[in-house]
Amino acid sequence: MDVSKNSAGEFQTAQEAIDWIVGRMEKLGMKPGLQRMHLLMEKLGNPERRLKFIHVAGTNGKGSTCAYLASVLQDCGYDVGTFTSPYLVRYTNRIQVNGADIEDEVLLRLVNDMKPIVDEIAATEVGPPTMFEISTALAILYFGKVAYPDYVVWETGLGGRLDSTNIVNPIVTVITNVGHDHMDILGDTLELVAAEKAGIIKAGVPVITAVEPEAVWRVIEQTAKAKKATLYTLGDQFHLTDVTSELDRQSFQFNGPFRPIPELAITLNGEHQLKNAAVAVMTLEVLRQYYATIVDDVDLQKGLSGTKWPGRLEMVSTEPRILIDGAHNPEGAATLAAALQNVYTYKKLHMMIGMLATKNHTGYLRHILPLVDTLIITEANFHKKGDAYLLAEIANGLLREMNLEVDVAVERDWKQALTLLTNRTEQDDLAVVSGTLYLISDVRSWITYQTDSEKGW
């Protein structure tokens, strides 16, 4: 199939094409499995075989680990494609080369080329490709037949084993961690979730991880052993020492199996970002060792310190101070709570949250409630949003159980809730907006650009 020529197609604008893709989310939802992806790739000429993928899975930390990897590789002079989800402002944010979104006219051409193939597959027994499958295929088509990046930093959507991104054979695999998320789909124990994420491990392809505790790590180890894939684990094959932390700057020495690297620094906040950075550095060390990737220390230092990751411990306003963070599961809440206790100072803490219906709200709230003076509960503008009043019931029950006094308010309209949060936050206070990234993306766009986001998977 030739995608170099413009083709007259069903869609006239990029927005029409995007609406068609995104509209499939509500109609079809998510359908785990790789049959449709195999058919799509085959009919598109298997462009994924031309690319060098760094495949990244994990419950939390995937996005920032991807950001570190992309930033360093770019500073080393390589062209880097990234595929990440969900996006914060525009659909095209999810498919980038060197930080620049896929161009609208290229997206339009590629989607018009794919549409007849999607329709053809939809008519078979495997059924219609989903929103995420088409997005994944679009990214592969763009990277493999238009942009030709040197490396593709490739983030899983959900789980790993049956995720549409698992259609690729990467040169290195990363599993950041395993936590309580998407358990309705991936399994009701951490070991089952770990087994799903371990599904991205390929024969002979090295694996880097920061997974703990041991019972969960053991699942990753057993899969790696069965696939004869060398496993590099934080705290075992590689370590962080000489750690210093202050607001907007953390430094460490990296000690790995190939060499020590002193004086590395990051500007992202929170202890978890040190782990994510260490995982990224180990991944880059494997690329140096196995694939002769040229990573000079000066570029490594520059790339790490220059990494930005919107929507995670991001200060989007200074008057009043408003911090946004996409923590939406118990592990994310624990990480956010640690940062609020150790990194930031404030007189009072006011928090606004909105969740999806499927999340572990009790586990999340147990970490957050002891820290806050005000809790404003709202709803994301998304079809799977959690009911604010049900969430308030859970919060109030936990407050009684934990013998805490917190001012809990419910405001279903997130813009009204944001006004309420802003009005309550005085000069020495800190406001935090947390929960689903569907809410975070709206709040970020509204505060930064005074516009609504296109957010989505």
Q: Can you put this structure into words, describing what you see?
A:
Helix content is 41%, strand content 18%. By secondary structure, it is of the alpha/beta class. An 8-stranded mixed β-sheet has the order 4-3-2-5-1-6-7-8, sandwiched between helices. A 6-stranded mixed β-sheet has the order 12-13-17-14-15-16, sandwiched between helices. The protein has a 3-stranded antiparallel β-sheet with strand order 9-10-11. Helix 3 crosses helix 10. The radius of gyration is 22 Å and the shape is globular.
Protein topology:
Layout: H1 14-28, H2 35-43, E1 53-57, H3 62-75, E2 80-83, E3 95-97, E4 100-101, H4 104-122, H5 131-147, E5 151-155, E6 172-175, H6 183-186, H7 190-197, E7 207-209, H8 214-226, E8 231-233, E9 239-246, E10 249-255, E11 260-266, H9 271-291, H10 297-305, E12 314-318, E13 321-325, H11 330-342, E14 349-354, H12 361-368, E15 374-377, H13 388-402, E16 407-410, H14 414-424, E17 430-435, H15 437-449
Parallel strand pairs: 1-5, 1-6, 2-5, 6-7, 7-8, 13-17, 14-15, 14-17, 15-16
Antiparallel strand pairs: 2-3, 3-4, 9-10, 10-11, 12-13
Helix pairs in contact: 1-4, 1-5, 3-9, 3-10, 4-5, 7-8, 11-12, 12-13
